[in-house]
Amino acid sequence: MANVFEKVGEIKERIIKAINDAKDLNALKLVQETELNKKSEFNGLMSHIRELLGEEKVKFGQMMNEARSAIQAALAKKDEELNNKLIEQKLASEKIDITLPGYNFKVGGINPFQLIIDEITDIFVSMGYEVKEGPDVETDYFNFERMNIPANHPAREMQDSFYITPTTLLRTHTSPAQAHAMDEKSGQPIKIICPGKCFRRDDDDVTHSHQFGQVEGLVVGKGINFGNLKATLELFLRKMFGEKREVRFRGSYFPFTEPSVEVDISCMECHGKGCPTCKGTGFIEILGAGMVHPNVLKMSGYDPNEYSGFAFGVGIERVAMLRYGVDDIRKFYQNDVRFIEQFTRK
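^ thats the sequence. predicted structure below, dont judge the formating
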């Protein structure tokens, strides 16, 4: 039986040597599958236990347990060693060279169209105005009739544009948002601005576009007069274009206001002396305004004998072109990064 005990030692040493000689995890797994499966020579040694008697059987069992523990310890040690080696190789291959220059992240610009909306909004919100927006697709009723422009009115000629159905169209101004707001207020005082896009049939050239932006304003209450309109617009225009700007009001006509005015500011280039920018007049037209027409008040549920109001509208691109010296309105819509990256939020 001495040979059985010697066999245990020999097989143990052979397996441990094979474990220690394994070059990678696959080789180690192969040793484990070959030498320690149920039909392996090592596990087959247990069949000899029935040939032993008394103390020899006990001694053989202890020897097999010690051999199995030694093999398992060698396996665990080699597995840890090979895994650590694998991690070191991976770290070495994925090593970051900190001497390389970092990525140059570019700071993007903001379309000046949005910059102007934000600035106008900030000014009027600081004056106590609410911001109200409306849908781009409107009914003929809200777009025209509620603005005192009934069917066959001459003012429709320049605005009858992009109809979707006989009674719905892309809005031609943001005034419908004011009508919706007045309906919501149900005859109560109102003080709002309505920024957004508008659509009209027009030539696409350096100063015109079939799509453009407006910010319209509306104030309705008791005792509102033209002096309130004048003071509001003078404050707004000097905040937008500088405290030294002169503001001029000229009589005009709009179906939804009476009286109506065009509002000019002194030219930023020549300071009122006359130049090509202002066509020699010294002033540049900037917006339209007026006192809300009594018919508009009536249709919106306000008694014109008790309530009055004023309204105004300014073109977003026009302000941006004057502010930033942009020479072509189409640049606002072409998504040219070279153009947009010139502008940052004020």
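Residues 2-93 form one domain.
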